[in-house]
Specification:
Number of domains: 1
Distance between the termini: 69 Å
CATH topology: Rossmann fold
Number of strands: 17
Shape: globular
CATH class: Alpha Beta
CATH architecture: 3-Layer(aba) Sandwich
Number of helices: 7
Order of helices and strands: EEHEHEEEHEEEEEEHEEEHEHEH
Structural class: alpha/beta
Largest sheet: 13 strands, mixed
Length: 303
Amino acid sequence: MKYGDFHLGDNAQISHSAVGPGARSSNAISPGPTYSPVADAEAAKGRPSCDVGIVTILAKEMQAVIDQFDLSTEKKLDGLFFATGEATTESGTVTVAATQTHSPGQRSVMSALEHLRRHFSPRLWILVGIGGGLHPEHARIGNVIVSTRVVYYESRKIQAGGRVQPRGEERQAPARVGHAVNRYFTDRGEPAMIRGQAKGHRKRTFEVLPGLIGSGEAVIADRDADIRRFLTGYNDKVLAVDMESGGLSQYWQENSVGGTPNPDWVVVRGISDNADQAKNDDGHDLAARNAAHVVRDLLPYLC
């Protein structure tokens, strides 16, 4: 008994099957579409590309980056907005694409990074904006922290009696980024000194320091909070906290597989408050503009 052509699965096809004694068949199975690095590379040729992908969270952070880099071309791709342009540095001209996350937090920054990767394929990710200062001497409002190490502080163990034991997860940027940041501070001094970039602060001097960033979902607004003691006890070089760096470092780590090169990354945070009861929005513009200025200053070392 002989059956005509029939389909098996999405795109597999079996032709001229035969069943029974002495029956013959000529079976051709088509496995469906295949994917290859060559085909993927060809498909990617039409996409724009850039050297640096910048992620911000707040509108003031995005505006500070646009002003600092003179980003004037706005692209709308798949319903998403990107500010693009070029920056001339001592090392040459680099292309820049910047975007703002949908909302604060670890999960939203992962989506923003994926959007940058899909549309622009940057070689370097920079998370730039504001953060809360932990160190009373160095992390003052307006100072800037450059970080290649992130401590995610939300992991924890809840024990009997409700006692909570934090479990920090530390991740580090690629070694070449660490070397670049070290060179920046060798040339500029540690701390490096900058002029304030916001109106009313241009005659003031602020510090730029290397340090760790503590990152989690919680907004810290208590000088006596347990998490502050945990972070400073974990490493006294944890100078600031934010709500996004942990997402950046984890996204990078989990995507550092496969044949596509993984972008480098660095975090630059301007201190807008001291993560205590006096926390407010007054220092946002100063912190954001100082941070964007430092990113521009760092580019010759990073690119």
